[in-house]
Structure formats: structure tokens, C-alpha cells
Amino acid sequence: MPDPDPAKVLCIGLGGLGVIAAWTLQRNGSDVTAIIRSDYERVKTSGYTIHSLDEGQTVNYVPTRFYNSIEQVKGPFDYIVVTTKVIPKNDGSDVWDLIGNSTELLKEDKTTGIVLIENGIGIESYWNNVRSKAVLLSGTSYISSTNTKAEVKQYGTDNIKFGLFQGENEPHSSKVLDRFIDMYKTKSNKVVKDENVQHSRWKKLLYNAVYNTICCLVDLDVGRLYELKDSLDIVNNLILPLMKEVQFVANQDLRFHESNDLVTDEDVKQMEMLTAKFDAPNFYAPSMLMDLRNSRAIELEIILGNILKIYDQTGGKNRHAEVPYLNLLYIQLSLVQYRISLTK
Q: Where is it found, in Gene Ontology cellular component terms (predicted)?
């Protein structure tokens, strides 16, 4: 629904997901400022071309205003939507440092909503220096979309959950969340209020810690992976065993934090079925595979490394015995990450 009081929104990270998010907010009436880096000159010349599955058409999109660095931006903003890769540099240039140290971007009354539509588990810990100055929101997205040289292809419905990270208990936090949900809803997307962010993020890892990682390791998209479904029984020999290990660690963590929600066997079954139904026929290349093919660092720690850390922290005793697939995959992808670093 269009917001009668247009919100000022800063969007950082305009990949496939980020462009869809910025476009959705802007056509619903928000005043959108975007940080565009690799596609800046292309967008300046001709904008983005979006092949929208939800709208059933191809559209041209240009943000209300856009810059190629955050230092050029003037705030403050009602919301900052972050869809960047979570790969810490620890040199002061990470997005959480740039926002936390800025006197321009956040509202003085501490009601700016920072919306993290990003992969992984434990990502909120990087924002500890900002949490006293803003409201931290989680976005768990199930869209499948890619951005190649400012051409965005959407393969799956924009299905997304927004919720409050644990610890966001200020009286105004729920209002900030509810307003953003209203700003993002359209007739064609599916937007849900997330009552248990940690549980939702674990369920998403059934995909990212499995398909994202396997596709990256072997340099094959989801469709090519499923071509081996019969000859190698890839689902039963690799995909489901990995999912079951993610489920095991997820429920160990959720029980540790006394959650009433657990990742179920049906969740595992549904994730495999939906991936086979939607991503495989489109030969979808997950984000880690795209990063590999473009010689960019992969989101190894927040997608896979943090799962193993949480396993250790919540009572895990033997990685080799209880999570052997995850442990081996992490070691293998650490070697891939090292190989990528040698190309820089």
C-alpha cells in the first residue's frame, strides 16, 4: 500500500535482490536514494532493466536519486535497506562502520529502521555499534533474482519476512517494523511479519548452506546439479544429508535459546521440493556461485562458518561425528576462498 507520508529510504547493495527491493519501495511511494557501484555508469545512462515475474512484465527503473559512494549521501533517513554481501573487511569500511560513524544518516530520535535483507545467521552481531542509535530489522527473502550488468531477472516470487532481531525492545521498535511492512507490500508479492527471526533464518539456511555452497564448490547451477539426480542420487546422497545436519544444529541452537519453534522434517522436505520445482528448471545460479564466477569473495563465514561456531557454542562435541558433511564442506570452501584471494 502506498504510504501517505512518503518515507526517505537509503538502499545499499543493488544486486538482484536489492534492485527489486528499491523498485518495490519506490513504486509504493517511498523516496529512494541508492548507492550504486559497479552499475553506476550503466544506470546513469539507461537505468535498470527488470524482468519482473511478480508483475509479468519488463520495466525500466531508475532510483529517485543515486550515488556511487555513501559519503555523498545526505540524510537522515527513515529506513536504510542493506542487501550487501556480509564479508567483513575489519578496516573501517564495512557498511555497519560507515553507518554507525556517520552523523548524517540516522535520525536523532533513534527511530531509523536498518533493514538487513541478507544471508546467514548471526549477522546482527556486526551491528552492535549501531543498535543503540537505530532499530535493527531482519529481512528473510526467498526471492530468486540476479543482476547482470544492470539487467535484473526475477525467477521466484518476492516472498519475504520482516521482523525484529532479538533485543529490539524499545517501545517504538514495533511501529518502525509495521510501517516498513506496509511500505513494502504490493498486490503481487508476499510479505509476512516475522515473529521468530532466528527460526526463519535457520530455515533459510536449509537452502543457503546446501545449494549455495554445493553449487559454488562444483561450479554448477541448481539445474545442472539436478541433472545428476538419478545417476548420482544427488538428493539422497548429498542434499538431504546436508539439510539434516543444518536442521540438527538449528534445533540445538533454538532449544538452547528456549524457542518454541523448531526446524521440522517437513521444512527440510519442502525446501528440497521447492528448489527442484522453481530453481532447477530455471538453471538458477545462487549468489555464491555468481561470486565464484566473478572472482569475488564468497559469504563463507555467515552462511557456513557460523553454523559450525554455533554448533560448538551450544553443546556440540564432535564435528566429525555429528556434522561431517558441513565440516568437510567448510574446509573445502575455505580452500576455494583462498584460491579466489590469490586472484586479487
A: cytoplasm
**pLDDT tens-digit series, residues 36-46:** 999 999 999 99
DSSP code per residue over 126-177: GGTTTTTTSEEEEEEE---EEEETTEEEE-S--EEEEEEPTT---TTHHHHH
- What CA–CA distance (Å, rounded) separates 74 from 153? 30
Q: Is residue 53 part of a domain?
A: yes
For the chain, the domain total comes to 2
Residue 4's pLDDT band (boundaries 50, 70, 90)? Answer: low
Q: What pLDDT shows up at residue 169?
A: 84
Q: Please give the torsion angle defined by the CA atoms of residues 274, 287, 211 and 285, in that order, rounded to the nearest 10 degrees.
A: 70
Within-domain flag for 1: no
Say what the pTM is.
0.94
- The number of angstroms, rounded, from the C-alpha of 238 to the middle of its chain's C-alpha atoms is 24
- Whether 304 and 176 map to the same domain: the answer is no
Phi, psi of 153 (to 5 degrees): -115, 125
What is the tens place of the pLDDT at every residue in 284-301? Answer: 999 999 999 999 999 999
Residue 344 has pLDDT above 90, yes or no: no
Give the domain extent around 13. Answer: 8-194
Task: Give the C-alpha separation, 187 to 66, whole Å.
Answer: 27
For 209, 241, 278, 314, 327, the CA distances from 225, given in Å and listed in that order, are: 15, 15, 13, 33, 21
